[in-house]
Structure formats: C-alpha cells, structure tokens
Amino acid sequence: MLRRAHLLAAAATLGLLSGIAHAAETASQFPSHVIRFIVPYAAGGLPDTVARVVAQRVTASLGQSVVVENKPGANGVIAAQALMSSPRDGYTYLVTDGSMMSINPALYKDLSYDPKRDFVPVSLIATSPLFLATSTQTGITSLQDFVQRARAAPGKMNYGSSGVGSSHHLTMEALALGLHTKLTHVPFRGSGQSVPAMVGNQVDVVFAALPSLSGFAEKGQVRILATNAGKRSTLAPDIPAIAEILPGFNFAVTVGALAATGVPDYAVRKLSTEIAKAVQDPAVIKQFDTLGIEPVGGSPKEYALAIDDEARRYESAIKAANIRAE
After folding, report:
1. Mean pLDDT rounded to a whole number for the chain
2. Would you list the domain boundaries of the chain?
3. Residues near 216 by Cβ (< 8 Å), separated by ≥ 6?
4. Which residues does UniProt assign to the signal peptide (predicted)?
C-alpha cells in the first residue's frame, strides 16, 4: 500500500513536470500559425484601421501572418460570439473600441456577452481624441465662449452626433452635465453626416475626429475649440483640453485588443508585448498621426484599469442623461 502511494505520488510529480515542460515548449513555439484579429465593424472604421496597421507590423515581427476579419452587426454580438466560439489557444483576438466594453453594457440590458466574464484585456493599442468644433458662422470663438453661451441659454444650443449612444453623443452629454446646462441633441447617421451639417451651420457644434475637421478648419469654415482627451493632444497641442476647465474629463475613443477567457497567459503576454513594439515603430506612429490616432500600447493590467475607468464615465453619462438604446 505504501509502495503504491509512492508510485502514485511519483506519477503525479512526473505529470506535473511534464505539464510544465509542455507549457514551456508551447510558449517558446508560440505563435506557430496564423493569428486572427476580429473587428466588430465593417472595413474602414477606426478599430479596423488600427487592427490592420498593427497586424502588418506584428506579422513582420513574428514571422507569422496576422489577418483581420470584419464581423459587424448586432452591436458587437456577432464578433463577440466569433471570439468566444474560437479555440482558447491564443490565436484569435478581438480588436474593438470602447463601445463593446464600456458603452453597450450600460446601454443594453440583454447583452449575450459579459465583458468581465468573457474577455481578457490584452493591450490598449491606441486612442483617438475627438474635437469640439463649430462653424465659423456661429461666431463662437473659443471654448470659454462656447461655455458662456451654453450656460446662458440651457437647451438653446444644439449639437450633432453620429447617433444615439455613440461616443460623440455621450461625450457631449457628459460635457453638458459638467457645465450644469443642457444641449439639444440632433442625431445623424455617422460623422459623415453630422460634420457637414455643422459646417453648413445646421447644428451649432459637434465632436469629431481631427481628420474629419482639419480640411474645413484650414479653409476657414470651421473653428476647433477643444479636445475631449484628458490632456492636450499631441495631434494638435495648441488646442485646449476640456479637462482644463473640467478636471478629469476624458472621453477619447479607445481601441484595444481582447482575448477570450481561458486563453493561455503566455499568448496574452506575447501579443501585448508585440503590440507595444508595433505602436512604437516610427512608421506606425507616422501612419497613426495622419489618421488622428495616438499610440498607447499598454499592458493587460493597464488596459483592464482603463476599461473600468471608461465604463464608469460612460455609465454616469448614460444615467444622468437618461439615454436609452433605440
């Protein structure tokens, strides 16, 4: 009996050592085939652009292809299901903006995924600050001027957004809340409609990405008043941050990579490291700069903290403005 116990103990020890050796071997060989980046939007949007730029750089670094697959629809549910139904082997990731992790959980009651339960943060890849802008026809000359006018007549000033529940919408409602005033919402179907409406003075102000505004600003048609990032953007350092008058205000759009729960830690760490290397590459920085994107490349822990912080801010804005999904 004693001998059998010794044999079982020895077998268990050998099994443990074998498992450790196998894990080490797997980690050292990773990746050995194609890595997939799933994007919950159609090609051409911010997350898709970030995913493709980073995929190209990571492919060159690893010597293994990183491919981007677009799975739009159902508020990210299709992409989430694609990720969760994939093998938990470290070869499939979700590259998305803050909507799936921070906005949807506060806006929709019956999501088929739970950000905390189903996903593991890998890296905060980049941020894209939005800029508060107005037509020069409005006569608004600065952020301070905008604030004075908005406070003087609550509800009189209106703004365009890219749709109900969008980051543009929630940022403006958070701004109105911080200024203790009201702004009238005019939703459009994307920035492709809201920005021209602002340029034509059909709405007073909008939040939009810098590339959508810079051409109009150069022609003297638009005045850029402020950024919604937590500090002045490196993309436009002369433009003030709203946080300068409302400390803690930060609603820059985030784009990050996530894995499904259960993916090996070594795979998460490896991809996080590769993303950090990618966004430090001068060619990537230059490409991002032209697209109005700021590289970050944070660790899994840093991205987890960023998601929590972002979720709290969006949830507060949604509740305060009583925003409901359409």
Report:
1. 92
2. 34-128+252-321, 130-244
3. 195, 199, 222
4. 1-23
34-128+252-321 and 130-244 have identical folds: yes
As a whole number of angstroms, the distance between CA 107 and CA 86 comes to: 27
Contact between 227 and 242 (Cβ < 8 Å): yes
E strand residue ranges, the chain: 35-39, 66-70, 92-97, 119-128, 130-135, 158-161, 184-187, 205-209, 222-227, 253-260, 294-295
Give the fold, CATH level 3, of 130-244: D-Maltodextrin-Binding Protein; domain 2 (3.40.190)
Backbone φ, ψ for residue 118 (5° rounding): -95, -20
CA distance 212 to 176: 23
Give the count of beta carbons closer than 10 Å to the beta carbon of residue 220.
8
Its pTM surpasses 0.90:
no
**How do residues 202-239 score in pLDDT, each as one tens digit?**
999 999 999 999 999 999 999 999 999 999 999 999 99
Sign of the torsion formed by the C-alpha atoms of 298, 82, 292 and 286: positive
Confidence category of residue 17, pLDDT binned at 50, 70, 90: very low
Instruction: Single out the residue of 102, 143, 104, 145 nearest to residue 124, CA to CA.
Output: 102
Burial class (CB in 10 A: 0-12, 13-18, 19+), 180: exposed
Q: What CATH code is assigned to 34-128+252-321? A: 3.40.190.150
The structure tokens 């909507």 sit at 99
